[in-house]
Structure formats: structure tokens, C-alpha cells
UniProtKB/TrEMBL annotation:
Provenance organism: Rhynchospora breviuscula
Biological classification of the source: Eukaryota, Viridiplantae, Streptophyta, Embryophyta, Tracheophyta
Family from the record: Belongs to the 4-toluene sulfonate uptake permease (TSUP) (TC 2.A.102) family.
Keywords from the UniProt entry: Membrane, Signal, Transmembrane, Transmembrane helix
Gene Ontology cellular component terms for the protein in this record: Cul4A-RING E3 ubiquitin ligase complex; membrane
Gene Ontology biological process terms from the UniProt entry: protein ubiquitination
Subcellular location: Membrane
Membrane topology type: Multi-pass membrane protein
Pfam families recorded: TauE (PF01925)
The protein's name: Sulfite exporter TauE/SafE family protein
Taxonomic superkingdom: Eukaryota
Residues spanning the membrane: 61-94, 101-122, 142-168, 228-245, 261-283, 314-338, 358-376, 383-404, 410-437
Signal peptide: 1-23
């Protein structure tokens, strides 16, 4: 495993060095051979796809809908959003521009996340959503997204592509390792269960830990209106600031000069808002835990504490701000990065998928509403894709839930996550390399850019 990681890092380093040296060259290629010829043909095919978007509906749109349906079925079921799959499908297959595809993707991710939350709240016996994690993470994640967007403006495309490929390759490997570990634990648990059924003694400790935690978590399968109100309040605060700031092009509901005094005051105000909400939530949770310790006694409280509660509370805000910054930098939804982070922390797969879906719902819906207010082209087509993803998400959730119930293997969710991540790594890396290659051949500037 170590040797494969070393080879992967060496390959990415050599590729990054090649791109850097090639970008500094001022000479234009006169002929194309090998990989360059393939990239040229693919780029020309993509240009033809982009030119065909004016004829709607067409065959490309129908094919894109079918592929998006399949992608939404898998991605929503494992709680990774699916934006990293939707963007290449919409741009390459449907022939949409990157700007339009990004807007459509926010509609589709929001629909998929909404479907998961409705399913978890009203159709599952035990809700797997951990609202404490969402409350602790959401303000810092939204702040991190804003920081990542600023970095995205300054960083060159080749650097973003290389960093994204490296990060996804590492997290995919870690996720596969987590899935294998959970699979082994499930196998051991099944073996112990057979021994208990056969009358053998002394096997009850490793068997009942997860089941006991599941019962404790599942007892609160009610709509937590108090937590949802706080989350909506956080969403509204950041949404108002984003609407005032506008999008990357400086388009907003209010005419604010980009990089002016008002612009920076609004931007910096996100920091105290995130710190204020997080501090208040941390203080509230600390009081609740102290009250629980007094009510149940020290010994009993230590027994009923789950692995989640034993973690320091600051872990989730720190992880959220880093995840949000990477999401904003790479221009993707947070689900693709949140889910692996939760799995590495030690959160059960279904809880990780459901919790990341709720967080993605708030972040993706913010982008969706912003696109609506600022005017997105062909909004009826965007709604059509969103409805398609909602239906696909229902199919995916029902299917994966039945498979888990019959097999007893929650690790299947982890392997689904790793599969989506591996596919995203290949697609987005290829997509980024094509764009970088086009910039190189066109002689475009490929260094760091100023923020203003």
C-alpha cells in the first residue's frame, strides 16, 4: 500500500512539473502527436457539443438525463451530493456552458439532498442524522466556502486541478481502507452472533456496542424543530451576505463595488458571525452535557457516552472550515469531502451520509436561490433536471436501504462513496487537464491572479 501511494505521489508531482514547465514555454505547438492529438480531438468534440445547446430539446439532452438519473441514484444514496458527476455530464454530454451547468448542478444537488432528508425524517425507523454535528459544523463550513472561493479566484487552473486530483486520490484510498475495516468488523460481528446462537458464551461485548448506540440514536426520530430553526437562521445570515456580495462576476441585488470598503466589510463580517454561532452552540452543548452528567451520575454518564461524544467539540468546526475552504477552492459541493472526513473521525456510514446530506442541503440551496434571484437561463430546464434527480434519489435510497437490510452490511455505503470518489477523480482530472491544455495551446496566462 505504501509503495502504491509513493508511485501515485511521484506521478502527480511529475505531471505538475510538466505542466509548470510547459506553461512557461512561449512557443506554440505546430503539430499534435499522441496524447496531444487525443486532447485536441476531444476538445473539438466538446466545442461541437457546446455549439449544439441552442437546439433544445435534443438527443444529447435525453442521454444526459439518463446518465444524470443513474449518477443521482448512486451519489444521493451514499450522501456525496453528486455535483462532481453532474458537471461533466451537463457540459460534455448535454452541451451546456460551464456557467449554466454549475447553476443546474446546484438545483440537482439540492433536490437530491432534500430527498435524503425527507426520507430520513419520515420514512426511516431510526433517523441517522446527527444534528449536533450539523450545528457545530455548518457556520464554519459556510465561512470556509467563502474563503475557498477567494482562493479559487487567485489560484491558477493547473494548480487547482493538481491539488484536487491529489486530494481525491488520497481520500479515496482512505475511504476504501475504512470500508475494508468496517467490512471486517461486520464479519466478526456476524461470526460472534452465530456463536451466541449456538450457545457459546463470552461473546456479547463486541456484538452489542453498535446495536446499543443505534437504539439510543434511533430513539429520537422526531423532527427537531429547535435545531432546524437555528440552522435556518445561520443559513439566512450567510445568504443575505452572499446576495449583497454577488457572484464571481460582481453581479448582486445591490450595486457594490468589488473590492471596495463595503465589499470587504461584508466579507469580513462572515468571520464574527461564524465564530458567534459556533461559540453559542458550543456553550449550549457544554451545558447540556454537564446537566446530563449530573442527572445520570459520573459512572453512568461515561457508559452512555458514545464514541461521538468522546471527541473534542472543536474537532467538527475545524474540520468543517477546512472542508468548506476546499469545497470553495475546487468549486464542488461539500458532500464529496465531508463524508470521507466523517468516516475517518469514526462516524458510522449511514450517520455520515445522512449528516453530510443535511449540510449539503443548506450549502447547495444557498447557491440555488442565489442563481434564481440573479437570473439563471432556462430555469424550467433546471427544474426538470432537479425533479429528475429527486426521483432518482428516491429510487437509490429505497434500493440501498433494502440491500443493507438484507445483507446487514452497512459497509456497502462506504464502498459506494469510494466508487463515486474514484469516478470523480478520473472525470474531473481529465476535465481539468483538457481545460489546462487548451489554455497552454492558446498561450493564456497561467500564473497566480490578483484578487481585485
Amino acid at each position: 500500500m505504501k509503495s502504491s501511494k509513493t508511485l501515485l505521489l511521484q506521478f502527480l508531482f511529475l505531471s505538475l512539473t510538466h505542466l509548470t514547465v510547459f506553461s512557461l514555454s512561449t512557443s506554440q505547438p505546430t503539430s499534435h502527436h499522441g496524447l496531444e492529438n487525443i486532447l485536441l480531438k476531444f476538445s473539438q468534440w466538446r466545442d461541437n457539443q457546446l455549439s449544439s445547446q441552442d437546439t433544445y430539446p435534443n438527443t444529447n439532452t435525453i442521454i444526459a438525463c439518463i446518465i444524470c438519473f443513474i449518477a443521482a441514484t448512486v451519489s444521493t444514496a451514499c450522501g456525496v451530493g453528486g455535483g462532481s458527476l453532474f458537471l461533466p455530464i451537463l457540459t460534455i454530454v448535454a452541451g451546456l456552458s460551464l456557467k449554466t451547468a454549475t447553476a443546474y448542478s446546484s438545483f440537482m444537488v439540492t433536490a437530491g439532498a432534500l430527498c435524503y432528508i425527507i426520507y430520513a425524517l419520515f420514512f426511516m425507523e431510526k433517523s441517522p442524522i446527527n444534528y449536533e454535528i450539523v450545528l457545530l459544523s455548518e457556520p464554519c463550513m459556510l465561512l470556509g466556502v467563502s474563503i475557498g472561493v477567494l482562493c479559487n479566484i487567485m489560484f491558477p487552473e493547473w494548480l487547482i486541478t493538481a491539488l484536487f486530483a491529489l486530494l481525491l486520490a488520497i481520500t479515496t484510498t482512505k475511504t476504501v481502507q475504512s470500508g475494508c475495516k468496517i467490512w471486517r468488523d461486520e464479519t466478526e460481528k456476524e461470526r460472534v452472533k452465530v456463536q451466541v446462537e449456538e450457545g457459546e458464551r463470552g461473546a456479547e461485548v463486541p456484538l452489542l456496542v453498535n446495536e446499543r448506540e443505534g437504539k439510543e440514536n434511533g430513539a429520537q426520530n422526531m423532527v427537531p424543530w429547535k435545531h432546524l430553526v437555528v440552522l435556518v437562521l445561520i443559513w439566512m445570515c450567510f445568504f443575505v451576505l452572499h446576495i449583497l456580495l454577488g457572484n464571481k462576476s460582481g453581479k448582486g441585488v445591490v450595486d457594490i463595488k468589488p473590492c471596495g470598503i463595503t465589499y470587504w466589510l461584508i466579507t469580513i463580517s462572515q468571520v464574527p458571525i461564524a465564530i458567534g454561532f459556533t461559540s453559542f452552540i458550543l456553550y449550549t452543548k457544554k451545558k447540556e452535557h454537564e446537566h446530563t452528567d449530573h442527572a445520570h451520575g459520573t459512572e453512568k454518564a461515561s457508559v452512555i457516552k458514545s464514541k461521538l461524544e468522546s471527541l473534542p467539540m472543536y474537532v467538527f468546526p475545524v474540520a468543517a472550515i477546512l472542508t468548506g475552504a476546499l469545497s470553495g477552492l475546487f468549486g464542488i459541493g461539500g458532500g464529496l469531502l465531508l463524508n470521507p472526513v466523517f468516516l475517518q473521525i469514526g462516524i458510522p456510514p449511514q450517520t455520515a451520509a445522512a449528516t453530510s446530506s443535511l449540510m449539503v442541503l443548506f450549502s447547495a440551496s444557498m447557491s440555488m436561490v442565489q442563481y434564481i434571484l440573479l437570473g439563471v437561463r432556462r430555469i424550467n430546464e433546471a427544474v426538470m433536471y432537479a425533479v429528475l434527480c429527486f426521483v432518482a434519489s428516491v429510487v437509490g435510497l429505497m434500493t440501498i436501504q433494502r440491500v443493507i437490510e438484507k445483507s446487514g452490511r452497512v459497509s456497502l455505503v462506504v464502498f459506494l462513496v469510494s466508487s463515486v470518489m474514484a469516478l470523480s477523480t478520473v472525470i474531473i482530472t481529465l476535465f481539468g487537464v483538457i481545460d489546462v491544455w487548451r489554455q497552454i495551446t492558446n498561450g493564456e496566462y497561467m500564473g497566480f491572479k490578483l484578487l481585485c
